[in-house]
Design goal:
Elements lengths: L1 E8 L2 E8 L1 H18 L12 H7 L1 H21 L6 E9 L8 E9 L11 E5 L6 H14 L2 E5 L9 E10 L2 E2 H4 L8 E8 L9 H6 L8 E7 L13 E15 L5 H7 L4 H33 L8 H21 L4 H6 L1 H28 L6 H15 L3 H9 L2 H22 L1 E5 L4
Parallel strand pairs: 5-12
Antiparallel strand pairs: 1-2, 2-4, 3-4, 6-11, 7-8, 7-9, 7-11, 10-11
Helix pairs in contact: 1-3, 4-8, 8-14, 9-11, 11-14, 12-14
Catalytic activity: [protein]-peptidylproline (omega=180) = [protein]-peptidylproline (omega=0)
Enzyme class: isomerase
Subcellular location: Cytoplasm
């Protein structure tokens, strides 16, 4: 068996693995012997049929098995090449494999690039303090009070800022309904009985309506103008002035609960001090967990600063497809249709390409760190990846295992992800943390 390597570019090679006729004949002899041993031919017990009869009856199967055996031998040779690390085989061509003529298999393969790794993996990362501040505690208290707020119906006064109002409206531009101008007008077109928080312009909505309902009484009608910005995302509305006809249907005043015995009991605490102390503990735990994520991210980013290397084409394509799949899942979960996907496919592909390159680069870098430091994936790592994949895809573990048995590429991806996580852990363990107060 001979191997000839031709450089196509920094990360791609053409590799020809050739077998002479005697090597192919030897492999064929082994394949034929196996068929003779197990072949079932009427009139003969297993292993007793004449060799010539087996060759004639199973010629097609023998040829296919010979091709598989020789190809596997060639792949073994490919993986055994010392001068580079194989990333992926992107193409395989082979001539007719015959014992009389030998065989030549031509692989087009991507290889890992040369990556200059740091001599020292120590980094310094700056993180924020994890102790809960009084402002954070108070915001969490307000969150729970808002969850339990009552909304009392008001009939004897006009709407005030902070009230929740039910309003009906229709927007028109030059007398024409926005519903006729925009394919999916949503909140910018016609609404019947929608709820708005009066005066709160920090939430999505038509600003002139949210501000305009302040001072209105139930049953009152009025017109307001909305001037859409020149760069407004909806082209039909960009730079236009719309007139909205409003009618206020209902006013409700939000009343927050007192932090009394009933409230504290509902929260599972005896005193307000206990309640705040528990919130502080939860906030600190959440910030600690967030800091751990940031530490891992910042440490890897610091090590990669100034490191440059060419990306294998298949690495970029693999990552692009992964990003594209994630984008499509998010797009569909937001209510988009297949028609929407088709309409936006060019934009999705462009964005996926932009996101894929740094991700592919990081994967290559982390893989080289793992290899250089002899990091290995064990059963515990794969079990953890199985659990993570189960949670991510919302699939029961036993069902996921069935899927994986039919999808070797997915298993390989999970194994690769497990190795990269070990590399990240390795880098994070060597990071020195500096706590810095926010300015």
């Amino acid at each position: 068996m001979k191997t000839n390597i031709e450089k196509i570019n920094d990360t791609r090679r053409k590799i020809v693995v050739s077998f002479d006729s005697s090597e192919v004949a030897k492999e064929k002899e082994g394949v034929v012997a196996e068929f003779v041993q197990y072949a079932k031919i009427p009139g003969f017990r297993a292993g007793k049929a004449p060799k010539d009869m087996v060759l004639k009856r199973f010629s097609g199967d023998i040829k296919a098995q010979l091709e598989r055996v020789v190809t596997n031998k060639a792949v073994e040779a490919l993986n055994g090449i010392k001068e580079f690390d194989l990333f992926a085989v992107v193409d395989l061509q082979n001539n007719d494999i015959e014992s009389s003529e030998g065989a030549a298999l031509t692989f087009t393969a991507d290889i890992y690039p040369e990556v200059k790794l740091p001599e020292d993996y120590k980094t310094e990362v700056e993180l924020s303090p994890v102790e809960a501040t009084e402002d954070e505690i108070q915001k969490t208290v307000d969150f729970y009070r808002n969850q339990r707020a009552q909304y009392n119906k008001i009939e004897d006064r006009a709407a005030q800022k902070g009230d929740f109002v039910q309003v009906s409206y229709e927007g028109k531009i030059d007398g024409k309904s926005i519903d006729e101008l925009v394919e999916k007008p949503a909140m910018y077109g016609k609404q019947k009985g929608t709820w708005e928080e009066a005066g709160n312009t920090d939430v999505p909505g038509v600003r002139s309506i949210i501000e305009g309902v302040v001072g209105m009484k139930v049953g009152e009608k009025k017109n307001v103008e909305e001037i859409f910005a020149a760069d407004f995302p909806e082209a039909a509305l960009a730079g236009k002035t719309a007139v909205y006809e409003l009618e206020l249907n209902e006013i409700r005043e939000k009343k927050l609960p007192e932090i009394d015995e009933a409230f504290l009991k509902d929260m599972g605490d005896k005193t307000e001090a206990d309640f705040r102390a528990r919130l502080a503990k939860d906030i600190t735990a959440e910030k600690t967990q967030h800091n751990e994520v940031l530490k891992r991210q910042y440490a890897v980013d610091k090590l990669m600063e100034g490191v440059d290397f060419p990306l294998p084409e298949s690495a970029l394509e693999e990552e692009r497809q992964s990003v594209l799949q994630e984008m499509m899942m998010r797009f569909m979960s937001s209510g988009a249709t297949k028609e929407d996907l088709e309409k936006n496919k060019e934009s999705l592909f462009e964005n996926a390409t932009k996101e894929a390159e740094p991700r592919a680069k990081m994967r290559i870098f982390l893989n080289r760190v793992a290899v250089a430091n002899s990091l290995k994936v064990d059963n515990e790592d794969m079990q953890r990846m199985l659990w993570q994949e189960s949670v991510r895809t919302r699939t029961r573990p036993e069902e996921l295992i069935k899927q994986l048995k039919k999808d070797q590429a997915r298993i390989n991806r999970m194994r690769s992800d497990a190795l990269l996580q070990k590399a990240i852990n390795f880098i994070a363990e060597k990071a020195e943390v500096k706590i810095v107060e926010k300015k």
